[in-house]
Design a protein that fits this description.
With about 260 residues, the chain is of the alpha/beta class. About 30% of the residues lie in helices and about 15% in strands. The strands form 2 sheets. The chain has a 5-stranded parallel β-sheet, sandwiched between helices. A two-stranded antiparallel sheet has the order 1-7. β2, α1 and β3 form a beta-alpha-beta unit. α1 runs parallel beside α5 and α2 packs across α3. It is globular, with a radius of gyration of 22 Å.
């Protein structure tokens, strides 16, 4: 039995306020905490468009699904800013062994079975989701100047520092995302003020859906999706009389169909 659709919901008011552009700020280490906050203040000061800034500083959720957790956070964002310093930073680990957790399932074949820090994963996931990604590599200024971007860094083994530089070369500067190198706050602030703050094409879609899309794996519902679209899309001949609903027996795919329509 297939799910059934009833009549459509009213179109949203044309006077509704514009949704805010959601900016996710990712940073590699505690040495960039203050800089991330300053970046957020600059973005919020751009009054021509409402901006909602998220700085990911705590990672909750089961260690086995770190990638899924990051997909959830970043799926809700329009613009992703990655502040990447010389330090590798924290990475997901298996609590039983303390060993880093390898990545599986990302589209980039270079990532399969390798270990990445949280911030490195955020850059990779944001790119896979097609978000507007702006990457800033923060480096120490030439002596005798002192950095006004980098705070104290925790000592790291040489192996982690080498992995960070390899990531920057292999992924951060491979031409897939916009990137610049900054050594002073003045240079970084100038870059932040030039970022085009626009909604991602799949916003404003709902951002509170229970699942991500199945993509090409969702098949066999084209006619039903078209029926829903005919009822809901403004400009069709359907008379709007009552809220819409999809109904049918349990397990026939009502929720999945609604999610895929919302994300189409």
């Amino acid at each position: 039995m297939s799910p059934q659709a009833t009549s459509a919901v009213p179109a949203p008011s044309a006077q509704a306020p514009a949704p805010p552009v959601r900016v996710f700020i990712s940073r590699t280490s505690s040495g960039l905490a203050a800089t991330a906050e300053k970046c957020a203040a600059v973005l919020r000061s751009r009054t021509h468009v409402p901006v909602h800034v998220i700085i990911q500083t705590e990672f909750t959720g089961h260690w086995r699904d770190v990638k899924g957790m990051l997909f959830s956070h970043l799926h809700e964002s329009d613009v992703v800013l990655c502040l990447i310093g010389p330090a590798h930073g924290a990475e997901p680990t298996d609590p039983a062994t303390g060993l880093p957790t390898p990545v599986t399932g990302l589209k980039d074949p270079r990532t399969e079975g390798r270990c990445f820090s949280y911030t490195q994963l955020e850059l990779l996931v944001a790119r896979q989701l097609g978000r507007h990604v702006f990457t800033y590599f923060i480096q120490e200024p030439e002596p005798p100047a002192t950095s006004d971007l980098l705070g104290p860094l925790k000592p790291e083994p040489p192996g982690l520092l080498q992995r960070q530089q390899l990531f920057i070369t292999e992924f951060g500067k491979d031409g897939t995302n916009t990137y610049v190198t900054c050594s002073t706050w003045a240079a970084l602030e100038k870059e932040l003020l030039s970022i085009p703050l626009t909604l991602h094409p799949d916003h404003g879609q709902p951002n509170n859906l229970p699942f991500l899309t199945l993509g090409s794996l969702f098949i066999g519902r084209d006619a039903f999706l078209e029926k829903i679209r005919t009822q809901l899309v403004p400009g069709t001949a359907t008379v709007i009389t009552q809220p819409a609903a999809i109904h049918g027996m349990g397990g026939v795919g009502k929720t999945r169909t609604a999610v895929e329509f919302a994300l189409a």
